[in-house]
Design brief:
Length: about 350
């Protein structure tokens, strides 16, 4: 289904991140119930919400983002008992994971309920379901009284937004409103785990490690098989990408980072380095140093990429993150930002 789009005035609705004001939530919920699009904060990134049961509203999401129709959306709920609204034949492993990790930065792929429109799932028989932990997201979904289909609130393949300003930079004039609840605490998208397969399939790593999830599931996971039907968002080779060209350099290779910065400067480019290690950039090159802990790094990563884009940086030399499994989700995001999944 193709939706036509006309420019709108995007409203910024301020909302306290921990104690959401009822009037702010009510305003955003009213827009969503009318079939409009509203961006809202989750603990991971800002989502672009539409009524999950309304095919026309969901079609607007694809139009606003420029998102291809074969890229499924995640449905956001506001309680364990909501699972039965959107999914059927829920396996025991899903219930174990829900009990431990919901609400939180985990999406489970389940067999979809017939009331979920095909546009949400890219025509597939499964649906990604998440219960976000952010107080604003929870209050909004409860106020709407229905699940929300909500990918990240940005144009397709761009860096996901972790503030309302990031949302407006990408979607101002394309959506009805953004519910501004401040910065997102996690900073990268949820892990996506398909529990309709045996063994479960980890489509996308997140801030929750594979080892943490496997310990609760009671079994090891597989990665997507070649030729498998794509059941998860975030699978395109280039994704989470800034406007600047991205180069990846091995972790700890300081001389290589400094050499590349100097080379790009000599070619008349405006380069920057995004690093964990201490480096001495050549004059004229920018440097942003991120924390050496995965949770703190994730919180800063997308904001740093947005900042460098806003400064007109043309090339970003990024030091790869450590090989430890705790960094798997961040390694995935960096590889896709560079177009190297």
């Amino acid at each position: 289904m193709k939706a036509t789009r006309t420019p709108v005035l995007t409203e910024r609705i301020l909302c306290h991140p921990e104690s959401p004001e009822p009037e702010s939530i009510a305003r955003a919920a009213a827009l969503l119930r009318r079939g409009e699009l509203v961006a809202f904060p989750t603990e991971t990134v800002y989502g672009l919400g539409a009524l999950a049961f309304d095919a026309e509203a969901v079609a607007k999401v694809f139009s606003a983002k420029g998102r291809p129709s074969n890229n499924p959306l995640i449905v956001h709920i506001a309680g364990r008992d909501w699972l039965e609204w959107v999914a059927v034949a829920i396996p025991p492993v899903a219930h174990r994971l829900v009990e431990t990790f919901f609400p939180g930065p985990l999406t489970l792929i389940l067999h979809k309920h017939e009331r979920i429109p095909p546009v949400v799932t890219a025509g597939g028989a499964t649906v990604g379901v998440r219960w976000p932990a952010h107080p604003v997201a929870q209050a909004l979904i409860r106020a709407v009284g229905a699940p929300l289909a909500a990918p990240s609130a940005n144009r397709f393949t761009e860096v996901s937004p972790t503030t309302a300003d990031h949302v407006l930079k990408s979607l101002d004039g394309r959506i009805a409103a953004v519910l501004d609840g401040g910065p997102c605490p996690v900073g990268i998208e949820s892990a996506v785990l398909d529990v309709t397969t045996t063994p479960p399939t980890l489509w996308r790593a997140g801030i929750l490690s594979q080892a943490e999830l496997e310990a609760v599931a009671g079994q090891p996971f597989q990665r997507p098989q070649p030729g498998a039907v794509v059941a998860s968002p975030g699978q395109f080779p280039r994704h989470y990408a800034p406007r600047a060209h991205v180069e990846l350099v091995p972790s700890g290779d300081v001389p290589n980072i400094e050499h590349r910065l100097a080379r790009w400067l000599a070619q008349g480019q405006r380069p920057a380095a995004l690093v964990i290690s201490e480096i001495t950039p050549p004059a004229g090159a920018r440097r942003l140093r991120l924390p050496a802990q995965p949770e703190a790094y994730a919180h800063r990563l997308y904001a740093a990429l947005h900042e460098l884009d806003a400064q007109g940086v043309e090339v970003i030399v990024i030091e790869q993150v450590p090989a430890d499994p705790a960094w798997d989700g961040l390694r995935d995001r960096l590889h896709r930002a560079a177009g190297k999944p």
